[in-house]
Amino acid sequence: MISTGIIRTAVGIIGNVISFGLFLSPMPTFHTIVKKRAVEDFSPVPYLATLLNCMLWVVYGVPFVHPNSVLVLTINGIGFFIEALYIITFFIFAPRRLRLKILGILGAELLFVGVVLGGVLGGAHTHDKRTQIVGILCVIFGTAMYASPLSVMKLVIQTKSVKYMPFFLSLVSFLNGLCWTAYSLLRFDLYILIPNGLGALLAAVQLILYMTYYSTTPKDDSKNNVELPKVTPTSTSDSLTAVTVEN
To answer: Where is the stretch described as Disordered (predicted)?
Structure first.
């Protein structure tokens, strides 16, 4: 008889693989940036927002906050590293004014996470209390990231075109949300369940919209670049991840 713990671990590993793929989804955008040696009209905000989300989930997953959350910790640690590389690349090719904006936002994020970490260590002396404080913050930021595609979904309905809502990313986002929702239910974790359950639901709506409006979408041979949400692994958790597409 396979135990619930083993099943949960297997689901978490699958979730790590799917989330890793979502973290890599902006690679075409950064290939364009490096090739042209300019950020053009791309925004750094999606990557800064995802970085903050990953940092909060890393704090959530460390043993002194929420024990036995290794799989949440690993994927968001990886996500943090990937997003940091995106931001460094963006910084290198950005104009001076945008670089200052990036530094300002990044500094505010690091200060915020530092305050959160210091607060839970100094003011919350039990795992339950620390989990509650950091978990609520993760739910807020994770939900904001997953809700960000609402503007794209509205555009799809208005234009009757799925040009700006790639099917593959919608499908993988749905599988990611579904996987982490199952993970949270196998050993109940409300803070992982809420953002990922919502993410799975919104991604399912995107897939329905895709099927509804695919036939009315004008055929276009041009290739689109993919960006993460303009907000912000799930988590992965978490992370991860809704997208905005730019020509």
So the answer is: 224-247
pLDDT tens-place string over residues 165-222: 888 888 998 999 999 999 999 999 999 999 999 989 999 999 999 999 888 888 754 4
160 φ, ψ (degrees, to nearest 5): 55, 40
> Residue 123 and residue 16: Cα distance in Å, rounded?
32
Q: Which residue has the tokens 């990557």?
A: 47
- The pair of structure tokens assigned to 158 is 């208005």
Which two three-digit tokens encode residue 165?
A: 């809502």
- At residue 236, φ and ψ (nearest 5 deg) are -20, -10
Structure-token match 């399912």, residue found: 204
pTM: 0.81
The amino acid at 11: V
CA distance 187 to 246: 39
The mean per-residue pLDDT over the stretch 27-46 comes to 89
- 3-state SS, residue 174: helix
Kindly state the helix (H) or strand (E) to which residue 193 belongs, with its residue range.
helix 190-213
Cα dihedral value 129, 132, 138, 140, nearest 10? -130
Of 66, 50, 154, which Cα lies nearest the Cα of 106? 50
Burial of 76 per CB tally in 10 Å (0-12, 13-18, 19+): buried
User: Cα dihedral sign for 89, 51, 22, 13?
Assistant: positive
H or E stretch at 246: strand 244-246
In this prediction, residues 145-170 reach a mean pLDDT of 82
Per-residue pLDDT at 232 exceeds 60: no
Q: How confident is the model at residue 242 (pLDDT cuts 50, 70, 90)?
A: very low
Q: Distance between CA atoms of 86 and 48, rounded to whole angstroms? A: 9
